[in-house]
Amino acid sequence: MVLALAIFSPLLLHAVAMGYILVPVSLPKIDLYVAISVSAVIALIITFVFYKIALKNAEDFLIKAEI
Asked: What is the extent of the structural domain holding 43?
């Protein structure tokens, strides 16, 4: 859930800046293509980190399985 919010936060900022979600604070305008690009980069980083964690856990599991 937290990671989903991290990935979609640029899109939420875009929605707030465009006035789709009303908040009492004005935010700088962010274009949709910038929000989607930032969201894609965040998703790529999260995917890469968890891939490395899964790879290390699988290696540890296979080492323990050989013993």
From this structure: 2-66
How far is Cα 35 from Cα 39, in angstroms, rounded to an integer? 6
Number of structural domains (the chain) is 1
For residues 47, 50, 55, 57, the Cα torsion angle rounded to the nearest 10 degrees is -160
pLDDT in tens, 13-38: 899 888 888 888 887 888 999 999 99
Distance between CA 8 and CA 36 in Å, rounded? 9
What one-character DSSP code corresponds to residue 24?
S
* φ/ψ bin of 44: left (φ > 0), alpha (ψ from -120 to 50), beta (otherwise): alpha
More confident residue, 58 or 28: 58
